[in-house]
Amino acid sequence: MSINAFFNTVVVGWLVIAAMTFTALLFVSAPYGRHIRSGWGPTIGNRAGWVVMEAPAALAFAAWFVLDERTGTTAEWVFFGLWVAHYLHRAFIYPLGLRGVNKRMPVAVAGMAFMFNAVNGCLNGCYLFALPDDGYRYANGWLGDPRFLAGLAFFVAGFTINRQADHVLRHLRAPGESGYKIPYGGLYRWVSCPNYLGEIVEWIGWAVATWSLPGLAFAAWTVANLAPRARVHHAWYREHFPDYPPERRALVPGLW
Questions:
Q1: Interatomic CA distance for residues 61 and 206, integer angstroms
Q2: What is the mean pLDDT of residues 192-219?
Q3: Separation of alpha carbons 6 and 18, rounded Å
Q4: Would you state the pLDDT for residue 78?
Q5: 74-88 and 46-67 are packed helices; what angle lies between their axes, rounded to 10 degrees?
Q6: Going by C-beta distance under 8 Å and a sequence separation of 6 or more, which residues neighbour residue 21?
Q7: What is the pLDDT, as a whole number, of residue 105?
Q8: Measured between alpha carbons, how far is 11 from 122 in angstroms, rounded to an integer?
Q9: Given 3-state DSSP classes, what are the helix, strand and coil percentages for the chain, each rounded to the nearest 5?
Q10: What string of H, E and C letters represents the secondary structure of 130-162?
Q11: How far is CA 35 from each of CA 38, 143, 169, 193, 230, rounded to the nearest angstrom?
């Protein structure tokens, strides 16, 4: 079996695990944030937990980029920049803006997310910067390919939606406050979790822009993790706020 065939087999297996995870999360919500509960072992502070969870994706991807023995093309630099733009914020900037610094999450959850992000960072980094390819799939001409341009548009749109939604959530509470409130503004007019919608759109854009199996796997994993999470968030809002806007959906405006 060639290295490319072996790599593709690993990615397909990763896709199967994503489908299994999606099914499991429809019945068991991940125990962190507003859904934290006892019985999941020792805990870690929220800020430290977010760094532990998200940093591996940035570091693993960057390692493959640095180890790339080929001459880095502009296209490779663009992909590196897109990935790092997301994960520098998610792993090292976003945690600093979290309110309720005394909140905690189970170490088990942080550990599972660590593995998830490390695998996705490795698979995408290896595919882009190390996997053998006689045609050198990401020569600079790729930047003019319709697939790249469409994917980039989705990525930027998702990135923008995600940041705007996070901004609203971050400013819901005054310093020292720890309770939950109903968010308003932006796509919160139509859905309970535009931050999750933005991230899903972002990584679908990545899958299209790279036109790759690892990109597809990462998009599938994003849906597997965040779609069930949006569903339980939406139900939680409706349960705890009798005046919650009835026109809102969980994740997709007007649909679901």
A1: 14
A2: 97
A3: 19
A4: 95
A5: 170
A6: 221, 224, 225
A7: 87
A8: 11
A9: 70, 5, 30
A10: CCCCCCCCCCHHHHHCHHHHHHHHHHHHHHHHH
A11: 10, 42, 17, 15, 12
